[in-house]
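User: Let's play a game. I give you a shape written as tokens, and you guess the letters that built it. Ready? Here's round one.
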């Protein structure tokens, strides 16, 4: 057992990490990742502290001017185009082996995306993304 387990949490090791990738109708690539940061397991429950991240990679023709001081929360109010069409390029699982023996896999999936009128500090357009995180747990096999 690790010190993390001693503190009442469930330690884990990363088995595999991957990203989900989507190609938007405007040529932009969106990459998503879901990460487990902390796990707590007791006899009947598993609770996860996790985060999802998104990054977009737009063609040079879509560059615009960054305007400092606009909070990111306001970007969703300045939508240029809602519900962009996209194609799935890949959807990858991130897998973690818990110290209790289970393997948990998480995957971030794009469920909706909108283009805003706001640009980041690199001049890339900011997209509003809706992400769903799915999980699967594999129990350890008994020998």
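Assistant: Ready! My guess for every position:
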């Amino acid at each position: 057992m690790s010190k993390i387990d001693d503190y009442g949490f469930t330690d884990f090791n990363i088995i595999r990490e991957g990203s989900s990738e989507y190609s938007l109708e405007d040529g932009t690539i969106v990459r998503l990742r879901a990460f487990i940061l902390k796990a707590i397991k007791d006899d009947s429950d598993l609770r996860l502290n996790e985060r999802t991240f998104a990054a977009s990679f737009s063609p040079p023709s879509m560059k615009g001017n960054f305007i400092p001081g606009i909070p990111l929360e306001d970007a969703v109010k300045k939508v240029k185009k809602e519900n962009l069409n996209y194609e799935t390029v890949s959807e990858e699982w991130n897998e973690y082996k818990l110290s209790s023996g289970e393997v948990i896999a998480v995957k971030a999936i794009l469920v909706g995306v909108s283009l805003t009128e706001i640009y980041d500090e690199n001049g890339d357009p900011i997209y509003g993304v809706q992400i769903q995180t799915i999980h699967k747990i594999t129990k350890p096999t008994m020998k």
